[in-house]
């Protein structure tokens, strides 16, 4: 849906002496970015809907666990779809054309309509960003259940984002007194009916607040990843998976630039359509990035490095003496086991877990009393195929390189199982 250029009105306006600014031409007045902007919005929106749909499918039917972060991500689609729809309508009405076209060709009633729609669109946009960010915080909270310090940090971040949302919305609502949805241009007759803040002042302020929220969201995963005792390459891969704020911060900076251009350049409306496309991308990129870990069941190989460090710590084992093992400490992205317990080859396989060889029975007398979903929400049996076990027999660390020859081994930290381990366990039976 793109705006129709009123060519007859343009020709008529050019025929009036000294009516249009000097140097104005028909070609200039007919310039439009409508089509590529609408295509970009629809492309980004379709991609986001697909990713969120895959996320919901994976969480509901594969993982069979739908958390608060998933509900928040799903609820974000309501204001997001509404915002995209309003953007397309605004483009259709001509909001992103040259200022001269808006001033001299569009009817005043149409301009007023675009101002009210822009008012509604940016309240919707701000709301969508809030729910999306809260979804990210809920995800971080889910994978940091074992760290009270991080939980409180995440709660404080959520409080900050909610408090930051209020001035953003209030600035939009009270941009003019008396309160109105209009935001009159200087050439409109309504400009004398209201006392208004400048559009750019409000939107730059909101952009700065939004950027601060993005920086907070960006900072949360840092302590999660830095605490892991893994190599630098793995940490870098985890940063790419768990730090969606990197892309969003870049998009937020781009949005701020477009707002500044839109307010303080002479042709202020010409940057409006790129601004709408960037805002759609800002919400969309956050949703996509925060949904990436949930897509692991579909794209397991891409998350191999994530598997090696994000396996469940919600396991209990019995030692050979029958004592119950301590619960492993969970930092959300990796595990550390305080004690070592004897177990047979193939440990870590839940009873009945599905492998390429069929179901696996409980290993030799080593009974996993409870097998829960891991902190990231993936079932243990989904994470059995990537990393190798670091194991030894309790006496000589060199022993255990060929675990199929060891009737009993001890495990230390790594809790994922490779194909070799599974094969050895199956053949040992």
UniProtKB/TrEMBL annotation:
Keywords, sorted A to Z: Membrane, Transmembrane, Transmembrane helix
Localization terms from the record:
Membrane
Keyword hit for Transferase: no
Gene Ontology CC terms, in alphabetical order: membrane
Q: Which residues cross the membrane?
A: 38-58, 70-93, 162-183, 203-226, 238-260
Family under the similarity heading: Belongs to the SAT4 family.
Under which name does UniProt file this protein?
Rhodopsin domain-containing protein
Q: Which organism is it from?
A: Friedmanniomyces endolithicus
